[in-house]
């Protein structure tokens, strides 16, 4: 991670779970880190969990990734303060597991998932790529995907969540080709975890009794991907907890 020290990272969905673990890991690794979140006060609270000499490297920015104006304002703020972004971690995600694809009156739930998991990710990636390209930066974009971006469970309660994650899988490859054809050395990586202990999973005894990953496990995978040499393209990392049956 030495080459990223003093560089600028943006993390979406930074208020809890994987996002919170990631902003702390990146700031601790020496990166100027902007945590984007709707609950911006929770990102501010994360500073108290960091050593005093690290706290000034973490900045909280209010942003709802379903709103393009929020995304544009957040990236503009980073540009004004630091010149632009070098690393983007697309972590923001939602699931509406109590609402089925075929349920009546479910339009808003479907749009929430698609706009957050897919459209927001694409728009943030666009803004990051433009910033990197304009400044001739060999940056890195990381998508927090899911094993459900590669398979669909027969539970019948996953809504369009797997569809959006399959979309992230396709977007990762699409972006890689666009970056290659543009003549850049910007990297894009998809990280697909199994079950992770975050707010997105149902708070039930049955779920919590299953083999489960911690948010820090995913943050460590992000650090690994970022730490590879410039010649190495880590395209996909799949992470499963020991004992998982899928």
Largest sheet: 7 strands, parallel
Order of helices and strands: EHEHHEHEHEHEHHE
- CA radius of gyration is 17 Å
Mean pLDDT: 94
Descriptive tags:
single chain, 246 residues, alpha/beta, seven-stranded parallel β-sheet, 8 helices, globular
Tell me what you see in this structure:
The chain is of the alpha/beta class and 246 residues long. A 7-stranded parallel β-sheet has the order 3-2-1-4-5-6-7, sandwiched between helices. It starts with 7 loop residues before the first strand and ends in a 7-residue tail after the last strand. The model has no long low-confidence stretch (mean pLDDT 94).
Overview in brief:
Strand 4, helix 5 (107-134) and strand 5 (140-144) form a beta-alpha-beta unit. The chain is built from 8 helices and 7 strands; from the N terminus they run E-H-E-H-H-E-H-E-H-E-H-E-H-H-E. Helix 1 (17-28) packs across helix 8 (215-226), helix 4 packs parallel to helix 5 and helix 5 packs parallel to helix 6 (161-181).
What's the SSE blueprint?
Elements: E1 8-12, H1 17-28, E2 32-37, H2 40-46, H3 52-55, E3 58-62, H4 68-82, E4 87-90, H5 107-134, E5 140-144, H6 161-181, E6 187-193, H7 205-208, H8 215-226, E7 236-239
Parallel strand pairs: 1-2, 1-4, 2-3, 4-5, 5-6, 6-7
Helix pairs in contact: 1-8, 4-5, 5-6
């Amino acid at each position: 991670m030495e080459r990223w020290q003093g560089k600028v990272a943006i993390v979406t969905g930074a208020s809890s779970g994987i996002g919170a673990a990631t902003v702390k890991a990146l700031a601790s690794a020496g990166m100027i880190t902007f945590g984007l979140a709707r609950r911006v006060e929770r990102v501010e609270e994360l500073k108290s969990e960091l050593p005093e000499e690290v706290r000034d490297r973490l900045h909280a920015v209010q942003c709802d990734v379903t709103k393009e104006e929020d995304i544009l304002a957040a990236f503009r703020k980073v540009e004004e303060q630091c010149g632009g972004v070098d690393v983007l971690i697309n972590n923001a995600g939602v699931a509406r597991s109590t609402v089925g694809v075929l349920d009546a009156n479910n339009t808003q739930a479907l749009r929430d998932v698609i706009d957050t998991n897919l459209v927001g990710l694409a728009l943030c990636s666009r803004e990051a790529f433009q910033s990197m390209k304009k400044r001739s930066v060999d940056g890195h974009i990381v998508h927090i995907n899911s094993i459900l971006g590669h398979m669909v469970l027969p539970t019948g309660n996953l809504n369009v969540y797997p569809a959006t994650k399959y979309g992230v899988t396709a977007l990762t490859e699409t972006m890689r080709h666009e970056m290659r054809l543009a003549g850049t050395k910007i990297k894009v990586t998809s990280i697909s975890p199994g079950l992770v202990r975050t707010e997105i999973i149902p708070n039930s005894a049955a779920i919590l009794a299953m083999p489960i990953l911690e948010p820090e496990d995913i943050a460590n995978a992000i650090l690994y991907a970022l730490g590879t040499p410039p010649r190495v393209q880590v395209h996909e990392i799949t992470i499963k907890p020991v004992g998982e049956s899928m």
